[in-house]
Amino acid sequence: SWNCNTISALYQLQTRIHSSLITMNLPKYNHNLTFCAHLGQKPSPEDELEERYLLDSIQWPGPPPRFATPSLRQSSDPVHSVFTILPNKERQEWHIGDQLEALVQIRDFQGRPKRYGGDFLLARLHSPELGAAVAGTVVDHRNGIYSALFPLLWVGPAQVEITLVHSSEAVAVLKHLREYRPDRVFFKSLFRLGFLSETTVCNMCLPSDQHLLCNYTDLYTGEPWYCYKPKMLSCDTRINHAKGGYLKHLLTNNEALLFQRFVVFYT
């Protein structure tokens, strides 16, 4: 004798209960890069070549191996860092169409020049008076020195602004999280058959030594996707998909210090 509103309210309540409990039973990932290597389809030679090209194109320099444990005192500090606008090689002044170059020297919190690259810098040339701005190109020389190149597009005053978004040490921490904690963003799916429903964790990669898996890998593209199999329901009773949330407290205290609010230094 239940009406549709009653059933809908019960369903929403049950979904909220499952959502609140799901974070309590997240899988413990092994800290290696091979626990999901056996999942998904073997890529074709063309796909392997494309994957290698994409990985090479986003390759980012990082600290030497001895800096595996980040130290704030040895990380990049914008307060101690400096940059210099290099003189025009052709003439004493700049014209529209010329290129302005600034040389950036990154130093650590002890004021010592950095000897390796990997810092995430943003460069901007702007004129508050004219309301004009242009983004610069940053070249990492991988020795603590960077070149910021700007096209000159207007006549009048201009300011160079360099922003340290992340130090090379912070970038290394983000890379470690990307490679070793694929579960930092987790998803969930609801399985339902009649009045019986279960919610399980889903992701591109799940360790299979804890629970049985439901394989939803795309047969055409080979894109992997897995959910933990419900205890009482079959894999074909899956009815929806949603983001479960973000795992917290993945950083150590020393690593968290590397992600303080960025500082802008300009001239």
- Please give the order of strands in the largest beta sheet: 10-11-9-8-12
Q: What sort of overall outline do the alpha carbons produce when their principal axes are compared?
A: elongated
What share of residues are in beta strands? 25-35%
Whole-Å distance between the termini?
74 Å
Q: What is the residue-averaged pLDDT?
A: 82
Describe the structure using short key phrases:
elongated, 4 helices, 267 residues, alpha+beta, 5-stranded antiparallel sheet, disordered N terminus
Describe what this molecule looks like in 3D.
With 267 residues, the chain is of the alpha+beta class. It has four helices and 13 strands. A five-stranded antiparallel beta sheet has the order 10-11-9-8-12. Strands 1-2-6-5 form a four-stranded antiparallel beta sheet, with no helix packed on it. A hairpin with a 4-residue loop joins strand 3 (120-127) and strand 4 (132-135). The model is unreliable at 1-24 and 29-35 (pLDDT under 50). It holds the Pfam family Neurexophilin. This is NXPE family member 3.
